Amino acid sequence: MKKSAIDNSFKWFCFFCAGLIGLLMLGFFIQLSLNSKQVWEVFGWRFLISSEWDPVAEKFGALPSIVGTLSTTLIALLIALPLALAAAMFLVHAAPLIRSVLGHAIDLLAAIPSVIYGMWGLFVLVPFMQNKIQPFLAETLKIHHIPVVGRFLAEDYYNGFGILTGGLILAIMILPYICAILRDVLQMTPPMLREAAYGVGCTRLEAGKDIIIPYGIRGILGGIFVGLGRALGETMAVLFVIGNIMEMPQNAFSGSTTIAATIANCFPEADGLQRSALFALGLILLLMSLFIQILAQSYLRAATAHRGE
Amino acid sequence: MPLKLEAKNLNFFYGNEQVLFNNNLPVEEKKITAVIGPSGCGKSTFLRVCNRIFELYRNQRAEGELLLDGVNVLLPEVDVLELRRNVGMIFQKPTPFPMSVFDNVAYPLKLHFKLSRRETFDRVEQALRGASLWDEVKDKLKTSGLALSGGQQQRLCIARAIAAEPEVLLMDEPTSALDPLATSKIEELMVELKKRFTIMVVTHNMQQAARISDATAFFYKGVIVEHGTTTKIFTNPANRKTEEYITGRFG
Ligand SMILES: Nc1ncnc2c1ncn2[C@@H]1O[C@H](COP(=O)(O)OP(=O)(O)OP(=O)(O)O)[C@@H](O)[C@H]1O
Ligand SMILES: [Mg+2]
């Protein structure tokens, strides 16, 4: 009797905590909406497609921040995904000792605070891009002569900051997350299916790309979206290396900004309409992150359900 | 009768633990050889040596000789991909690949041959007919292989295994996950297939072994205690252990 009473109240306590999390989410949403009301009233949906950000003239547009966020995230994903996939495949097949040592090392990478990545980016990666990569692209590869690629990678003067550098930092940051999930997904491949793949005469590469990856594709997509979610909202690491320029980026070395970086940069001095614009940016970021998170969850759930069959 | 496969002094190790001891087994061409024995006696292990699939795992090691048409396929210079084209494997549970019915069967063809689309289609149809599956799937070649029933999936795997024209088929308890009807379909199919292939089948079902096999090998604790024609093994076994096992006194 007494035991069940304790059990019951514990149940209600858990329910309360879970409800609190839901309320918190709702609260964020309402707060951001209310605080950004002004900017929506003044600019309407044009706030989303305007690239002006002029606090003096009271003109605000979200487009440069959105484009900066999406492009750094995309670059990060394009770099991190193949690396994470290769690393995960190696880890799954490596000898137990190597697997556990390297596996833990990768997990530890995820524990490094993002401000450390930012500092490293500023003091190591930015000079490296400036002194090595940019001159190499421009002078050795003569990249500006190559049609499409050249437009994205050519820049007249070298400063090392910009979208590509931000994307690189993000790639390093999300690598351990994606790798850990991919490793788990690949580990779940039924041994019999793997043996069947090799049994028809696949090489490692063929078995991986034609059978093991397609089999785990839902889990892999889940992992990708988890990485995307991390990259979207990341502030500190990007802030140091992106250049913080509120303009539409012209190429991969353009100084730019992201939603999170804009908010962090401008908030201390913001009031009135600018403050409202920053809340609107926050709302956009929250919605993007939520969307990505929901995709991630549903794919990961589908992947686990699939395995349960 | 010519020998297709022959194990000579075959030993197998998982790490330091030896699980096959001096196995000697002749396997005749275009016959069904049943491999029987109690659980854990090394039947699957023996099959896994024949296409060298054990090499996927470190610490697993075979010693001795396994002759395929007189050539020891355990030698490192033997091309393992070609060996696996030539020695197909069917597992205890169906293992369709995550692709369409058609692609499941076409996949090994793509790996090993350069065929035109026409030729590929013909060979896929041929293989599906060979696995008695064509009539059931000819209208849904584009649906996922995972969407078929268990028995159909197993026949799909057989079609996949025979598509690349192997000479040997290894089947490790191919019907243990199937209902009686699907089982008897597979059994009929195996009898049909032995006209073209040499088949080794592991089974726990004594009736099945007696029904479909021509030769039988009895494994016990990693040793081949007795082998010979199925009639002989089942009616007049030489070894007492064999007799006890097939009459169901242990196992
Ligand atoms: N991956 C492995 N690592 C270590 N030992 C193994 C491994 N696989 C099998 N064994 C051992 O090898 C022996 C033979 O196993 P095997 O799977 O060949 O038996 P089996 O005759 O196929 O049994 P069953 O009828 O249950 O399928 C068993 O003692 C088993 O414990
Ligand atoms: Mg077995």
How would you sum up this structure in a few lines?
The complex is a heterodimer of chains A (309) and B (251). By secondary structure, chain A is an all-alpha fold. Chain A is 77% helix and 1% strand.
Topology record:
The complex is a heterodimer of chains A (309) and B (251).
Chain A: H1 2-35, H2 37-43, H3 46-49, E1 53-54, E2 59-60, H4 63-93, H5 96-109, H6 114-140, H7 147-153, H8 163-187, H9 191-199, H10 204-215, H11 217-233, H12 236-241, H13 259-266, H14 272-308
Antiparallel strand pairs in A: 1-2
Chain B: E1 3-14, E2 17-28, E3 32-36, H1 43-50, E4 60-68, E5 71-72, H2 80-86, E6 87-90, H3 101-112, H4 117-130, H5 134-137, H6 150-163, E7 168-172, H7 180-193, E8 198-202, H8 206-212, E9 215-220, E10 223-229, H9 230-235, H10 240-246
Parallel strand pairs in B: 3-8, 3-9, 6-7, 7-8
Antiparallel strand pairs in B: 1-2, 1-4, 4-5, 9-10
Helix pairs in contact in B: 3-4, 3-6, 4-6, 6-7
Bound molecules: adenosine-5'-triphosphate and magnesium ion.
CATH domain fold name of chain B = Rossmann fold
Any idea how many domains of chain A?
A: 2
Category by helix and strand content of chain A: mainly alpha
Strand content of chain A: under 5%
Low-confidence stretches of chain B: none
Strand content of chain B: 25-35%
Please tell me about this protein's structure.
The complex is a heterodimer of chains A (309) and B (251). Chain A has 309 residues and is an all-alpha fold. Chain A has two domains: 1-35; 40-307, MetI-like (MetI-like fold). Helices cover 77% and strands 1% of the residues of chain A. In chain A, a hairpin with a 4-residue loop joins strand 1 (53-54) and strand 2 (59-60). The longest helix of chain A has 37 residues, at 272-308. Chain A starts with a helix and ends with a helix. Chain B contains ten helices and ten strands. Chain B has helices at residues 43-50, 80-86, 101-112, 117-130, 134-137, 150-163, 180-193, 206-212, 230-235, 240-246, and strands at residues 3-14, 17-28, 32-36, 60-68, 71-72, 87-90, 168-172, 198-202, 215-220, 223-229. A six-stranded mixed β-sheet of chain B has the order 6-7-8-3-9-10, sandwiched between helices. In chain B, strands 2-1-4-5 form a four-stranded antiparallel β-sheet, covered by helices on one side. In chain B, helix 3 (101-112) packs parallel to helix 6. The model of chain B has no long low-confidence stretch (mean pLDDT 94). Classes of the chains: A mainly alpha (309), B alpha/beta (251). Chain A binds chain B through residues 95, 190, 192-203, 206, 210-211, 214-215, 217, and chain B through 51, 53, 56, 58, 81-82, 84-85, 88-89, 91-93, 95, 97-99, 107-108, 111-112, 157, 160-161, 164. Bound molecules: adenosine-5'-triphosphate and magnesium ion.
